[in-house]
Amino acid sequence: MEGSCGGAGQTAAAAWQGRIGATNIGRLRHGKSSSSSSSAVARGVTAWHLRVFAGVVGVMGCFLLVASLMMSAVHQVQFRNGAISRGFRGLQELKQNSVKTEEAEQIMHPRLLQMATSAITKNESDSDSVNFALWEEPYKQARKWKPCAAKHSLPDEVPGENNNGFILISANGGLNQQRVAVCNAVVVAALLNATLVLPRFLYSSVWKDTSQFGDIYQEDYFINYMKSDVHIVKDLPPHLQSLDLESIGSQITDMDISKEATPSEFIKIALPILQQNRVVHFLGFGNRLGFDSVPAHLQRLRCRCNFHALKFVPEIQRAGSLLVQRLRRTAAMRTEMDKQLFGSNMVDDASLAVTGDAGPNRFLALHMRFEEDMVAYSLCDFGGGDAEREELQAYRETHFPALATRLRNTSVSAEEQRSLGRCPLTPEEAGLVLAALGYGRDTFIYVAGSQIYGGAARLRPLTRLFPNLVTKEDVLSPAELAPFRGFSSRLAALDFVACASSDVFAVTDSGSQLSSLVSGYRVYHGRGRAPTLHPNRKRYAQILGEEEGIGWGGFAGRVRNMVEEYKRVSARPRGRSVYRQPRTPGCMCRAAGDGSVDF
């Protein structure tokens, strides 16, 4: 392009010079008078100026055209390489809003981090021959399990309004704890032959969110989907609303019901009260219903509730669909997971149309459960010295007073907590796992969660290994996030959507409800193509404890074996949550060798 414009300018200049030379030669050849010559020269000079001006304009136009094309090309490259780049506002907020903001990195494993830095460079250079096991799960085994909780009850099982009364639930915790409480409440209502009132969500001093059921989930869809199993209403009837449930003995707290209680315990404690007063209020209801003791037909209700009936409100679905499309960098992709998460509210992001020919982008979602509440509750040491210990103890005094009191009377060993696998992974430790598994420096990672404890100092070792980190604040504009600001549960719903839709989901804390629910959702709706990386924290602590005596190859091999063990496909082990591992009777069905289905 530059050559053609330059050539045009040179040709024009030569033509102008030729024309001037021809005018002077013609004047001398024909012997014109001086006045005539002067007039001719004047006319020639004027024409020459006009032609020079036109030539200059033409050359400048060529340069402008080239510049415009170059800027357009740069824009396309930037868009293709970072369709969602918005200055990494999310990671900036993680740093600014965190409790600790030291400039120096907080590194607990310097030797491993140095080896990992070298290793991921090789991982990136080998990206063309990358091991596809990094992005897949054992498909042949996983595809044998099919979702089967969508089956409705038989017509003669449809519940009526004439039953034992009403069950009222007040659920504590954040979004994911409340989701578990809702589905457990469905089972309890069916067990007691009662009508379920739409659950209420208690305000938490930790989560600070006033959202109620209808702010997060579609009420009518939930009621209609479950109507063949449980009768659900939005409010208590007027004659029961005025009752003081505590004074009449109709309030049951967590102190009255065992953790993971059997169905018979609910029948023994709650049913007599329900039959007498026609209403029972479970206050602070959460993990109060076990798993192994629940029969398959009631287990199915849990799965119908969690995997089918609970749909986010359209506002969350639309924002979530934009989030996922931008992470994939394409609007053309539609998966079974999309259908379940977004329904008819999946919005096409027109700005992604120009990148459709580049194909979808694979991304890994990392749930970095390293907020201050988790760190404080773990009673672990994370290398911050006396300042860290004093700060975490002050947090426990405010938010976990019972735990703080126990610490004053009992000594707890941080080393023992770590050896037992009770410490959440730091960002550095999570990065070491990903590097050991073979992910390259160019891996695109969505970080779920917020308020990383330790801020920039704690996050920097992870970003050193994997610089392509984004959060929902990086992907969605401030205007798109505005309706969810100040509502932690609604923001957590966006994280749920992104993690469930990711090509790979990496867990750092097995005790997290988000990790548990997302893992199960991916098993149930992933069709054998939604792997989850789940480090065994106890084994990982043992590996890290021996880091001085092993090389990178030995470390990486042991980490891979640890993660691969979790990826093995099997039925739900006894004592495990059906929300995390739904391959269990009543929830998922396994195809038998002859093509039949084993329920």
Low-confidence runs: 1-45, 64-89, 94-102
The total of beta strands comes to 14
Question: Rounded to an integer, what's the Rg over CA atoms?
Answer: 33 Å
What shape does the CA trace take? Answer: globular
The CA-CA distance between the termini, in Å, is 68 Å
- Contiguous helical run count: 25
InterPro entries: FucosylTrfase_pln, GDP-Fuc_O-FucTrfase, GT106_glycosyltransferase
Pfam family, one: O-FucT
Membrane topology: Single-pass membrane protein
Keywords: Carbohydrate metabolism, Fucose metabolism, Glycoprotein, Glycosyltransferase, Membrane, Transferase, Transmembrane, Transmembrane helix
Describe the protein in words.
With 599 residues, the chain is α/β, with parallel strands linked by helices. Among the domains are: 91-95 and 106-146 and 313-370 and 424-590, no CATH class; 166-309. The protein is 51% helix and 8% strand. It is built from 25 helices and 14 strands. Strand 11 (504-507), helix 23 and strand 12 form a beta-alpha-beta unit. Helix 12 packs across helix 22. The longest helix is centred in the first third of the chain and has 48 residues, at 34-81. It is globular and about 85 Å long. The N and C termini lie far apart (68 Å).
What is this structure's SSE topology?
Elements: H1 2-30, H2 34-81, H3 89-96, H4 110-125, H5 139-142, E1 145-147, E2 166-171, H6 175-191, E3 195-197, E4 200-201, H7 213-216, H8 219-225, E5 232-233, H9 238-241, E6 251-253, H10 263-277, E7 279-285, H11 296-309, H12 314-328, H13 336-342, E8 364-367, H14 372-378, H15 385-399, H16 401-409, H17 414-419, H18 427-437, E9 445-448, H19 455-465, E10 469-470, H20 472-475, H21 478-481, H22 488-501, E11 504-507, H23 513-525, E12 532-533, H24 537-545, H25 552-567, E13 588-591, E14 597-598
Parallel strand pairs: 2-3, 2-4, 2-7, 3-5, 6-7, 8-9, 8-11, 9-10, 11-12
Antiparallel strand pairs: 1-13, 13-14
Protein name: O-fucosyltransferase family protein
Family: Belongs to the glycosyltransferase GT106 family.
Membrane topology: Single-pass membrane protein
